[in-house]
Fold these 4 entries.
Entry 1:
Amino acid sequence: MMTMENIYLAIPLASLFGAIIAGLLGRQIGRSGAHTVTILGVGISFILSLIAFKHIVFDGGAVYNNTVYTWMVSGGLHFEVGFLVDSLTVMMLTVVTGVSLMVHIYTIGYMHEDPGYQRFFSYISLFTFSMIMLVMANNFMQLFFGWEAVGLVSYLLIGFWYKKETAIYANLKAFLVNRVGDFGFILGIAAVVMYAGSLDYMEVFAKADSMASQTMPIMGGVEWSVITVVCILLFVGAMGKSAQIPLHVWLPDSMEGPTPISALIHAATMVTAGIFMVARMSPLYELSETALSLVMIIGATTAFFMGLIGIVQNDIKRVIAYSTLSQLGYMTVALGASAYSAAVFHLMTHAFFKALLFLAAGSVIIAMHHEQDMRKMGGLKKYMPITYWTSLIGTLALIGFPGFSGFFSKDAIIEAVHDSSIFGSSYAYYMVLAGVFVTAFYSFRLFFLVFHGRERMDEHTRSHLHETPWVVTVPLIALAIPSVIIGGMTIGPMLFGDYFKGVIFVQQAHDVLAVIGEEFHGAFSFVQHAFHGAAIYLAAAGAVFAWYLYLQNPPMADSLKKRFSFLYTMLDKKYWVDEVYYTVFAKGSRLLGSGFWKGGDMVLIDGLVVNGSAKVVAWLAGVMRHLQTGMLYHYAFAMILGLVGMIYWFV
Amino acid sequence: MLTDWPLLSLVVWIPIIGGILVLLSGDKGDAEGARRMALIFSIVTFVLSLGLYTGFDTTTAAMQFEEKHSWIESFNIYYHLGVDGISMPLIILTAFTSILVVLAGWEVIKKKPAQYMAAFLIMEGLMHGVFASLDSMLFYVFWEAMLIPMFLIIGIWGGPRRVYATIKFFIYTFLGSVFMLVAMLYMYFKSGSFAVLDFHALPLSMTEQTLIFFAFLLAFAVKVPMWPVHTWLPDAHVEAPTGGSVILAAIMLKIGGYGFLRFTLPIAPDASMALDWLIILMSLVAVVYIGFVALAQSDMKKLVAYSSIAHMGFVTLGMFIIFRIWANPLNADSGGAALAVEGAMVQMVSHGFVSAAMFLMIGVLYDRMHTRNIQDYGGVINTMPMAAGFAVFFAMANAGLPGTSGFVGEFMVILASFKANIWFALLAATTLILGAAYTLWMVKRVFYGEVTNDNVKQLTDINGRELFILSSLTVAVLALGLYPAPLLDVLHASVNNLLQHVSVSKL
C-alpha cells in the first residue's frame, strides 16, 4: 500500500535513481540502457506527480508538510530536509516532470550520435531530481540546496561539449553570475534566520508581521525595514536564477549547450525557479511595497529591453533565449503587481510553449545539420510539416493569439499591471504593452525566416532536408496540445478561483486579480473582452510588420538597419553589458588579485617584513662582526664607553 | 572491552613505534615491505581511532578516555591525555588522512621510501598527541616535535626551492611557538600546574590576558595561517611533496584553529572579547583579499594554498564572532554563538577532506606531467575523464556547493555572522563568488577544452590506487555534506560548555 508520504518521497528518488545508474554504470548498461532507465525514472516521477496532483487538487487531499530527515541541529536551529506539497507544488511538479519526460524522449533523437549519450541522460535526470527537490522544499535550506543543485547541473550541461571554447566559457559565466545571485540569496536566508529564528517556511511566514514591524541597522544610524531587506536579498537570488537585469547575461550564452537542455533548463523549468520562489514567499513580499516595486521595475525593464535584442539576433536559439528573458520579465512584473497566481500561470503556459519552440528549433537544427544561423535557412515548411505546424502553434501561443494558452496568461499580466497602483506600475504597464509588439515581431521574424521565403541553405543541406524522426516529433505534438488548450482550461480556477487559496497570500489592497475577476465570466468572455484592449492589436501589428519586412519587402529590413545603425549596433552589442562586465569584473578582479598578491604579499609582507627582518638580523650581525675586530684597544674603548654610559644612567 | 584500552595512547604511540619499525626495516632496501608495513600501521591506527567515536559519550562535555601519569614530578608535569567533542573528530580526521597519504606516496616516492613513510607515521602519532594532550608541556612537546618530520619531508622530498621554503616555515613557526611557551610558563608560575584545564580556571587580569592572548595569537595565527602571517604556506605547499601538502592543509592548519578553542578563548575570554575585532578583521581579509590573490595564481598548488587560507578565514571568523552575537540585543536567544563555533569546527573537518582532495588531485596530475603550472595543461578531460570527474566534484566542494561538506561550515558561519553584523556576513558571503571563480576557472583551464599539447595527449587516466583514494574522499565529502548530524552531535556538549565558560568574565 502506497501512502501519499511514500509517493511524495518516490517522486524525487525515482529521477535520482535513474541519474545515478546512468551516471555510474553508463558504460555497462550502454546507450539504450541509459535512456531506458532514466526515462523510466522520470516517467515514474511524472506519473506519481499526476497522482499527487489528483490527490491535492481533485480529491481535496490534505496539504503535506513534514520533515523527511533532520540534516543537523545547531544553536537551536533545525536544518531539515522536508516536503511541502500543496497546490503550487503539485502544479510545478507536473510541469517539471512532464516537460522533462518529453525532453528525455526527444533527447534520444537529438543526441543519438553524441559520444556523451549516457552522461547526458544522467545529467538531465539529475537536473529533474534537483528541480523536484527545489519545488518540494518546505524550508529555506532545502530550497537553497535545490537552487544550487540546478545551478550545478546547468553548469555541467552548458559545458556538455567540453571541447568547445565558447561552451566552457559560457558555463563558467553562467555559474558565476548565478553565484552573484546566490550571494544575495544566502544573505536573505541569513536575515530570515536572524529575525524569524527558523528555516521552516511556515514558521517564517508566521513571523512575517513581526519582521514587517522591525527595522535593522545598516550603517551609521540608517535603519531599514527588515522585511524589505529580506525580500530584496531573496529577490537578488531570483534575479540570478531567473536571469533578470542586471544578472541576465548568462542566459543567452547558455545556448551553447545542447538544445534539449535549452528547452528543459534554460526555458521551461530552472529559470522559473526565481518566479516560483517569490510566489512561494508571497506572505513576505506582500508586506513590503518597496520590494514589490523593485521587482516590478526590474521585471518590466527585462521584459521590454531583452525582447528588443531578440529582434536583431540571427542564431535561431538566441532569438528564443532573448524571448525567454523577456517572458521571465513578464512573470516578474506580475509578481511585482502582487498577481502571483498570474506569474505562476504564465510560468506554466510558458513552460509548454517555450519548451515546444526550443524543441522545434532543435528539430530544425537537426535537419540543417547543426546549422543555427537563420540567414542560411528559409522555406523549410515543405520539408518539415510537423515541425512547421507545431512551431506555428508555439509562436501563436507566445505572441498571445486569442484563445491560445499564452494569450490568457499574458493578458492577465497586462491587466493586472494596469490595475496595480504601487510605485512603478505605470512604467511597467507601458513596458509590457510595448513588449507585446516586440514579442510578436521577433517571433514571426524567426518563423518567416526559417519556414518561409527563399531557401538560402547550400545545395548539400537542401538535398538532405527531411522531417525528423518520431522521437523528436512526438514530443513536439505532445507539447503543442497544452500550448493551445491549457490556458483556457485553467485560467478560471488558477487566477480567479481558489486553486491557490491558502498557498498564495495577497493583501486586500494589492489584490488586482480580484478586481479583474469581478468581470471574469469564463475563458470565452475573457477572449472577447481582450478585443477592447490594445495588446491584441499590438500583437497583430508586430506579426504583420514582420511579414511585410521579411517576406514582402526584404530589402527594407537592410535599409532600416542602415538608417538606424546606432540603434542596431546597440541591440547587436546587447547594450554593451557583456563588455562592461568583462572589463570591470573579469579583468578587474584578476588585476586586483595580482595587485594584492604582488603588492601586498610579495612586496609588503614578504619583502618588507619577512625578508626585512631577515635583513635586519643580517645587518646587525654584520655590525657586530665589525665590532669584533680583534684589536684590544677597540674593546677597551667600548668598555670605557659602556662604563660612562652606566655611570651616567645610575647617577 | 575496547573502552578499557588506553585508546589515546595507542593512537599516539602505534604510529610512532610503527614509524620507527618502518625506518629500521627500510635499511634492508625492501621498499615494498616498508610501504605495506606503513599501510598496516596507519589502518590499525585509524580503526582504533574509530573506537573514540563509538565509545564517545555525547552527553557530557567532560574529557573522555583520560589517561594521567606523572611525568616530571618536580615541575608537576603529567602525561595527561583526554579528548572532548572538539578534539576527537580531529584525531579521526588525522588518522583517516594518514592512510590516504601513505597510499598517495606508494609508488611515487622513489627516493628513500621507507624513511618517507616513517616520517609520516611518526608525524601522525605526534599530531594525535597534540590533539589529545591535556597537559600544556606535553602539548608543547608534541607541537614542536611534529614540525621535525614536516621539515624533513619538505627538506628531503621537496621541490627545487625546498631550502628556502623550509627556512621560511621554520622561522615563522618557531617565532610563533616561543611566545606560546612563555605564556604557558607564566601561567605555570601563577597556578603551579601545567594542566590545560587548570589554565582555563585560572583568574587573570586584563593585562595578563591581553599578553597571553597575543602570545597565543602569534602561535596559532601562523599555523592557521591567518593574514598577514600566511606567506609561508604557499611556499611550503609548492615545495612539499603531495603527501606533505595533504597533511599540511588537512591537519596542521587545524591545529591553529584547535589552539584558539582550547587555549585562547577559555584562558583569555576578556581579552578575546576586547580584541575580537582584530581576529574578525584578519579573518575577513583572509576571505576577501586572499580570495582575490588566489584568482591571480598560475601555479595550481599556490592557488589551492591560497584557497585554504581563505577557507580557514571562516574558521577563525566563526570562533570570534560569538562576542558580537551575544552583544547584539536583536538576538533574543544565544544559539547563534553555538552555530558559529560549530560551523567553524565543521569547516575545519570539511576543509580537511576537501583540501586533501584538491592536493591529491594536483598530485595525480603532477606525477604524470611534473609541472604544476596551469598553462601547461588544458583539455585533460579528453585523456583523463575519470580524473576530470573527480576534479569537478572536488572543485564544487571547494566552492561550497550544497550537498558537499564544503557547504555546511560556510553556511553555518554566514548565518551566524549575520547575527553579529550584516557587514561581516556580506564580506564572508563573497566567498560564494570568489571561491567559485578561482576554483572553477582553474578547472576550466586545466581540464576543459581541446587537448593543448602532446604531454596532455599522452596522459593516462587514474589507476586503481588513485581511484580508491579519491573515492574514499568523495564518500567523506558527500557523507558530511548530506548528513552532518553525526558530527554535530559529537560537538554540542563540548561547544556549549566552552561557550558557557567563555561567556563568564575572569575579571
Entry 2:
Amino acid sequence: MPVLHLTQETFDSSVLQAGKPVLVDFWAPWCGPCQMMSPVVDALAEDVTDAVIGKINVDEEPGLAQQFNVLSIPTFMIFKGGQVVDQFSGAMSKEALKERLQKHF
Amino acid sequence: MEARHVIILGSGPAGYTAAIYTARAGLKPLVFAGPQRGGQLMWTTEVENFPGFPEGVMGPELMDRMRKQAERFGAEIVDTQVASVNLSSHPFVVSAGEDAYESQALIIATGASARWLGVLGEEQYKGKGVSACATCDGFFFRGKDVVIVGGGDAALEEATFLTKFATHVTILVRGEALRASKPLQERARGNEKITFLYYTQVEEVLGDGVKVTGVKIKNSQTQEISELSVGGLFVSIGHQPNTGMFEGQLELTKGFIVRKPDTSLTSVPGVFVAGDVADWNYQQAITAAGLGCMAAMDCEEWLASQE
C-alpha cells in the first residue's frame, strides 16, 4: 500500500479511526536520519497489508507534532484503536521496524 | 548461495569510496548500507571542510552524491541488515535477512555510533528530550533551556546550532578544559546564549513521565549535587566503533579493528578495513574516504594474487 501523507484534516479518519494498526513516521525535510529512513518506510509500506503506514511532515503539521509531544525526529508511533501503543525514535533497519510493527497485528 | 568478488559493509564515506574504487575496477561490489544508511554525516548539517566544496555541502547531500557515484560504476547497494559474518572459512559468508552470500573478499566499513551517558533516566527519555542529534531535534526546543554534554568539536558546533532555537544552552564539560578546536571555542564563547560548566557530570535525567524536565548534575571537585531545570539533554561525547559482529573473528584493540600499519589489512587475509571502525585518531569524512580507497586497492591486489 502506498504511504499516506497525513495532515491535521486527515489524521482523525486515517489514523484514529482506522480499522488496522497505523505506523506514523514524524519527519522533516532538513533531518538527515529522516531522509535515511524515508525509503525504508516506503519499502515497508510496499511489504505490509495488515497495517497502514503514514508520514507527518512536522514542518507543515507542527500542531500534530506538539499534540503527540514529538521532541525528536524521526519518531515512529504505532496507533491502534485510536491510541498510541508504541513509540520509538531514530534510524533502524526495515526488518527491525517491521518486527516492531508486527507485534501489534 | 550467491557468490561475489567483494562485499562491502557500511555506507559512510569509507564504504562508498571503497565501492567507487572496486566498482571501477570491475569487481561489481555488493554494499550493505547497514542500519544507518549514509553513516554519521547523515546526522550533520553543513560540512565545511570536505575538499572540493568551497561553499560547503550538506552532509546528507554529500552522502547521496557518493552513493550515486558508486552506483554509476555498477556497485549494488542494498539496505538489508547483515545479521552475521563468518570469517573462519574461505570464501567468507555474509548472512542478511533470509539470504546468505559468499564472498572472496570483504571490506569492513561499519563506522561508529554515538556514545550515550548510561545514566538513570537516559534510556527512558530518549526521543522525549534526550537526544544525540542536535541538528534533528534542536527545532523542538524553541524557547526552552537545554544542556549539552561534551567538550569536543561536535559538542561546540551543536551548542552553537542549538542557540538558534533554545533560550539558553549550558555546556557540561567533564574535565577542566575543552578539547574542541580554537575557532569553535571562540565562536561558542562569543555567543551570549551559551554558558560552560566544568568538572560537571550528569548523574540522572529527570522527567515527568512524558518528557525531560531537568538533569541532576555533580561537580567532581566539590562533590556538590544540584539540579538544572531544562527541557532537553543533548549528548555529544563521541562515538564507539561498530564491531559487535567481528568479536572473536578479527583482532581488535580498544574496540577498534586492528589494521596493519600503512595498509587496510586485518588479521584475516582477504578482510580489509576502512573508516572510523579502525580509526581512533582522526575520524574525519576525508580520512575515512582515504582509508576506503586504500581498502579497495589492497582488496583488488589481493584478489588478483589469488587467481
Entry 3:
Amino acid sequence: MPTQEQDKSQRKADKLFDQVRTGDQTAFELLFSIYFARLNDFAKNVVRDGMISQDIVQEVFVKVWETRTEIDSLNVEAFLFRLVRNRCIDYIKHVKVVNNRMLEVQISSKYEELYRIDFIGNEPYVLIEEELKTKIEKTIHSLPDRCREVFILSRMDGLKNREIAEKLEINIKNVERHLSRALQSFRKNFTEELHVALILLIINEFIK
Amino acid sequence: MNNQELGEIINRYFRGQLADHEYELLTDSLQDKNNRDYFETAKREWELHPELDELAYRNLNRLNYQLDKYINTHRIPVTRRLWVKIASVAAILMSGLFTGSLATYLISRNKTNSEQLVFETPRGEKSFVKLPDGSEVWLNASSRLVYNTFSSSRRQVELKGEAFFKVARDEKAPFVVKTNECEVEVLGTTFNIMAYDEFGRKEITLLSGKVTVHMNDVEKILNPGQALIMKDNYFYIDEVNAAEASEWVQNKFNFKNISLSELMKRLSNWYDVDIKLENNTGKEVSFTGTFKNEETIWQVLEAIKVYTPISYTKTDLRKIRVSVHLKKTN
C-alpha cells in the first residue's frame, strides 16, 4: 500500500502535469528540472552511453509535450519512468546493429531496483533483464526440436560446429543450417533490429 | 549509515550523481521505514526546489529549442543525434517565444547558487542568448559563454569558442569580452569572435561600430570591415568581407585560408563527429570555401577530396578517419 508520503509527492507531479496539459511551459520546465538528472542517470546506466541517455530523455520529454493532451496517467512519475525505460530497451535492441557494441551491454538490475522504489512504488514492474530473458526463452522454446538442440549446444554449451556434428552424428552443413535458422527466428522475434550477438551475450549471462 | 550520510546520498541520487556502489546501499537503506519517510520528505523538498547542474541546464535549453521548433512548425524534429542530420539541428536555444519568461526563470534559478551564468553549446549545435542588458549573442558549436551579474559601469562576459555579438549601446558601461588571449572592449557594436583554443588562431571581425582589443600590453582599435588575426605570438589586422565572418549564424560556413587540420576540427564541431586525421603533413594546403548546412558530412568530404588527396572511412558511429595520401618522392 502506498504510504501517505508517496501520495503527496505523486500529487505534486500530477498537479504540475495538469498545468502542463494546458500548455504551461514553465510547469513543463519545472517537471523536466525535477526529473532530468534521475532519468538521465538511469538511462545512462542501462544504455551505457551518456550522450544517448540524454537523447532518450529528450525524446521522452518532447513526446510528452507533443501528446500532453492525450496523456491520461494517474501517476505521471511512473509514466515518465516507463517511457524512459522502454526507450532504453528499444535502443539496446536497435543500436547493436549499428556498430557491434554488444560487449558494452550488461544489463544490471542493481540500478533498477532503486528507481523502481522511487518511481513505480507498488505498481507491477518487470526488470529490463527479465523482459529480454523471457523473450529469449520464448524464442528458444519456439524452435523445432533439432534446431533447438543444435542451438543450445552451440551457444550455451559452447561447442564448435564440428563437435556438434560429431555428437549428434549429423552433417556439419546441417549444423550450420540449424544455427542459421535459429538466428533467423531470433531476428524475427525481436521485431526491432536486435543484433543476434547481443541476444547470445544475454543468453550466456543467463546461463551462468 | 547515519542521517547525515543518508541525506547526502539521497541528495546525490536526485542529482543523478550516485557512485556505483551507492545504488545498492541506498536501495537497502530504504527498506527501513524511517529512512523511507526521510527519503519521501527529501523528495518533496527536491520537487519544490530542483537544482540544475550544467548538464541538466544544457538539456533544458535543448528541450526548449525542440519545443520552440515544435510550436512553430507543428512537427517534431528528429531529436536523436543521427549524425548526418545533426547539422540541420541548429539549435537556437531559448529563442522566440521563450526568451522572456524562460530566460528570467532560468537566470533567477541559477543565481541562487552563484552569481555566474554559463551558456554552453555542444558540438553540432548553436545557441542564441539574450543578455539582461538587451545584447544578443549567437554561440557557435562547442563554445562557452560565461557572465557575471552586470554592474552599472561594466558588462563583462567570458568566451571560449566562437560567438557573434550584437551589443546593446550603453555609453556608461563598456561591454567586455574576455578570451584567453585578449579582451575586446566595446560600447555598442556588431562583431564576431572566433577563439577556439585548439585552432591555434583567433579572429576578431568587426561589422559595425568600433572595438578596442587589449592584448597584454598592446591595444588595437578595429574599424568596420577589419579583422584582427592572432597566431601564436603575433597578430595582424586585415581588411575582410566582415559579413562572411558571421554567416555561420545563418548556417552558412565560410572559411578562408585555413589548414586542413583546422578544417577538420571545424567539421567535427559543426557535424558533431570525431575526425581522426592521419598522415597530415602540415600547412602546405589551405582551404577557402563556403558550404551550407544542408550538405551532409559525406558531401563535404567528397568536395574536399576533389582538390586534396585524401581518403576517408567511417570507423564507428560518428567517427571518421581521414588520411592524406603522401606524394611519392621520385
Entry 4:
Amino acid sequence: MIPGTRLTTVSSRFLRAETFDLMVSPAIADLQFEAPTASRVRRLQSYAGVWRACCGALCQDIALTLKAPFVDEARRAALQSDVLTFAWLTLFQVCYYAGMLTIAFSKWSDLRAWLHTVLLRTSVLEALMLGAVALLLPALPVLACFWPRRDDARTC
Amino acid sequence: MPERLPSISPVESLVLALIESRERYGLELVDLAGGRLKRGSVYVTLGRMEAKGFVTSRQEERAPGAIGLPRRLYRATPYGLKVRDAYQLLREALALKPAEAR
C-alpha cells in the first residue's frame, strides 16, 4: 500500500474538498514522494507533519463552519437543521442505551446495587463526568456517521 | 461595514520571499527556511495564503502511470508581494525612534 492512503481516505472524509486539496493533499503528496528514499526518522517526521496539517485544516474548517451562519442566512438555516439532526440522532441513542440499562437494572439487582454504591461514593464532579461520558458515548458514533455538511464554495 | 485590510505575518513574509522568484514545493520551503518553517504548519500557512490571494499554486505535471497524489507547486502573486512590501514599509516606519523621525 502507498504510504498515506488511509490518511487520504480519512481526511478527505472529514474535510471540505477545497481544504483537503490545499492543505492536506500536498502534505501527503510530499510524504509519498519522499517515502522510497527517506529514513525511518524522516518518514516519522513526514507523518507527524501530515497529522499537523490535518489538525490545522480541521481547525480552519470548523472556524469557517462556525463563522458561516453570521455572514449568510442560508448557511444559518443549514446549520440549524444540522444541529437539530445531530441532537435528534444523539438523543435517539441516549434513549436506546437508557432503555437497555433500565432493563438490565430490573433484571439484575446486583448491578443496581453496585451502581448505587458507585454513585454514592463519587463526588458531584465525578458524577457529572460520568454523565458527560454517558452523553459522549452515543454522540461519538453519530459524529462519525453524520458530519455536519459543509459548503465547498469559499465565500466567507 | 468597511472592508478589512489585508494582514501578513512574518512567517507569510518569509514564505513569499522564498517563492518570489520561482515555483517551489512545500517541502523545499521547509528545507530552505532552515528551521523557521515546520513541516506540519507550512501547508496550513500556504493554504491560508492562497485563500488570501498571496500565493497561487498548481499541481505538478506527472508522468503517466505515476502513483500517489500529485505534488503542489507554489508561486507568489504580485498582490502578495505588494502587501508584503507595504507591511515592510509600515514596520520600518513604526520602528523609527522620535529623534529619527524629525
